[in-house]
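Following up on my earlier thread - several people asked me to post the actual chain instead of describing it. Fair enough. Here it is, all 178 residues.
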Amino acid sequence: MTFEQAPGIRCEVAGQPHPLSFLGCRGLNYGQHSVLPLHPFRLSVPEAALADLLDEPFNSFIQTCREDDLQDEESDLPALKEAGYPDITAMLAGHRQLLAEMLYDFMISDLMDAIGRASGYRSQVPRYWGDVEAADNRAYFIVNEVETVSFADGQVIFEGQGYYGTYVIWLTHGYVRK
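Reply from S.P.:
Thanks for posting it. Predicted structure:
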């Protein structure tokens, strides 16, 4: 197992190294009870890599927050507004607690997707809704919930619980092949 495509990023599941291209994030019911056994994980991402991984989705999220705040004349994230809607680099430099909260609440799935791309994984593109042949059946470690986000020694540390499983597209209901 190599990590050359995503230098400095490390993941351990139950204390054992885990390949980055086999990480996923639970979308539906994120953080809720899992019938599969949960295992602790620790994901370590260099601060310098975080900006590269999340620059586009983070800036898009910030822009959406700014536009919503102007439209609604109130803010769902007052601390973000008070900070002046900084980009991720400025957040790393001066607003780490706010950044940790935003990563925890809004950006975990984006981060997992970006790490997958950085590690060389490319998913197949379904040809039609429910394309079982394009289903991604790699063995994953699925992040069920991030419990803490912290900063130490130039790293952003994500710790939580997840489970081993296989990701399969289940959207075949209702599709009739002609």
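Helices lie at 47-72, 78-82, 88-94, 96-118. That should answer part of your original question.
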